[in-house]
Amino acid sequence: MSTWRVGPETSLAQLAATIVLADTGAGNARVRLYTSDRPAELGGAADTPQAEIVLAKPCATIVDGVLVLHPLDGDGAMVASTGMPRWGEWVSAGGVVLTDGTVTDMAHGGDIRLAGAETPDGETSPLLYAGGLVLLGATSLS
User: Fold this and answer.
1) What are residue 44's phi and psi, to 5 degrees?
2) In whole angstroms, how far apart are CA 94 and each of 21, 76, 98?
3) What is the DSSP string of 87-107?
4) What is the C-alpha R_g of the chain?
5) What is d(CA 15, CA 117) in angstroms, rounded to the nearest whole number?
6) CA distance 72 to 28
């Protein structure tokens, strides 16, 4: 059993290194949203993303000890298919899947939070429509 503790300086260095890794490669890092069940393994997506949010370069900053993602286009990203995104993955500019997590609206505290769409009663994720735009909300990693 490990009993290591990570200090705040180490945590900040890890977040800074994650931004560098995410921005390494041709093109831009991105967040991909999926309507399918989340795969058991990181990088195991077998279907086409419902939407892909391209991130700016740098793709994130560290604000008060938290890594905050920054979309390239503040107007949103095009939705390819109608449905409710259940999970998403953050992919580096070089195509490496960095992390994945749950998707919710802004009120439900998922790992990836979306804004600008209605969430049906009893659901935690917004219903997105093909041809519409999806906005990345206050999504952060600590």
Assistant:
1) -95, 15
2) 9, 22, 10
3) EEEEE-TTS-EEEEEEEEETT
4) 15
5) 30
6) 9
Per-residue pLDDT tens digits for 6-29: 899 999 999 999 999 999 999 999
Q: In angstroms, rounded to a whole number, what is the distance separating the alpha carbons of residues 57 and 77?
A: 16
DSSP 8-class letter at 118: P
Tokens of 12: 């900040």
CA atoms of 117 and 82, how far apart (whole Å): 12
62: three-class secondary structure by DSSP: strand
Check if the beta carbon of residue 124 is closer than 8 Å to that of residue 105: yes
Distance of alpha carbon 89 from alpha carbon 33, whole angstroms: 7
What is the distance in angstroms between the CA of the first residue and the CA of the last residue of the chain? 23
Q: Is this prediction's pTM over 0.90?
A: yes
Element of type H or E holding 140: strand 140-141
Helix (H, G, I), strand (E, B) or coil at 125: coil
